[in-house]
Amino acid sequence: MSTSSQASLEVLKGSSFCRWYKDYREPPWSPDAYAFSKHYWCVLAARLAFVILFQNLVMFLSLVVAWIIPDVPKTIVEQLKREKKLLVDVFLQEEKEKFQLIQSLFSKEATHPPSQASFIPGRYSTLPRA
């Protein structure tokens, strides 16, 4: 060992407190010995601010990524729109056929008395029998 390291060990053996680790506390000779110093509270506030800012940044970035990348691809969205349009067209065509059938039945009833011959079985069998 060198003489300087031996001298520092001698000083450490004679001291009653550690000067190497600050721990952000008041020194033992202060009126409020070993209490948290103002520096400790500033560091704690900075840590809390960092955690809050980092959390909000991550949340904001996740919302941006979710907005940029869609859940459903565009091709599927377009296909669903086409299918919906075709389904609406089929329903409209069926309703138009039903309406024309009802009109034809009423026009036949006006010219002929009701009979079993005017009933058309098959696709529209839910209509009441005349």
UniProtKB/TrEMBL annotation:
<dbReference type="GO" id="GO:0005229">
    <property type="term" value="F:intracellularly calcium-gated chloride channel activity"/>
</dbReference>
<dbReference type="InterPro" id="IPR049452">
    <property type="entry name" value="Anoctamin_TM"/>
</dbReference>
<dbReference type="InterPro" id="IPR007632">
    <property type="entry name" value="Anoctamin"/>
</dbReference>
<dbReference type="GO" id="GO:0005886">
    <property type="term" value="C:plasma membrane"/>
</dbReference>
<feature type="domain" description="Anoctamin transmembrane">
    <location>
        <begin position="35"/>
        <end position="83"/>
    </location>
</feature>
<keyword id="KW-0472">Membrane</keyword>
<comment type="similarity">
    <text>Belongs to the anoctamin family.</text>
</comment>
<dbReference type="Pfam" id="PF04547">
    <property type="entry name" value="Anoctamin"/>
</dbReference>
<keyword id="KW-1133">Transmembrane helix</keyword>
<protein>
    <recommendedName>
        <fullName>Anoctamin</fullName>
    </recommendedName>
</protein>
<feature type="transmembrane region" description="Helical">
    <location>
        <begin position="48"/>
        <end position="69"/>
    </location>
</feature>
<keyword id="KW-0812">Transmembrane</keyword>
